């Protein structure tokens, strides 16, 4: 599905949770408030960052707040779980279409990153580390039959 090897989009699932679609202004406001409150302190025991992507169809900048997991120096792991939804989150499709236009912000840092979908053994090792730190992610596997992507963001 993806034309760029850095972010590989796997097929959607045949079952999974359906995420409610909220009005754009409400979603943007919620995202901004959540990031301002939790950018320097844990949210549900996890650190968060704000990912900025460029819309796959719209071409407009989009902001998403996600949990992240450190992965060495200047690298972070994020998960495209969408709460166990039947399809991947929109930000993941945005990364696949525009992998050269991805930025992250956390704390007081803002930097451009290169996304890479982990596959095979690298994905399995990362998934285990993520579930050890945040066990709630394991439950998403029972909600959907799609492969939940694990993306490594490296400083560009």
Structural domain count: 1
Q: Largest beta sheet: what is the strand line-up?
A: 1-2-3-6-5-4
Structural class: alpha+beta
Could you tell me how far the N terminus lies from the C terminus, measured between alpha carbons in angstroms?
24 Å
CATH superfamily label: Electron Transport, Fmn-binding Protein, Chain A
Question: Would you mind describing this structure in some detail?
Answer:
With about 160 residues, the chain is of the alpha+beta class. It has a single domain, classed as Pnp Oxidase, Chain A (Roll), CATH 2.30.110. The protein has 4 helices and 6 strands, in the order αβββαββααβ. The chain has helices at about 25-40, 90-95, 120-135, 135-145; strands spanning about 45-55, 60-70, 75-80, 100-105, 110-115, 150-155. Strands 1-2-3-6-5-4 form a 6-stranded antiparallel beta barrel. The longest helix is centred in the N-terminal third of the chain and has 15 residues, at about 25-40. It is globular. The chain starts with about 25 loop residues before the first helix and ends with a strand. Residues about 1-5 have low confidence and may be disordered.
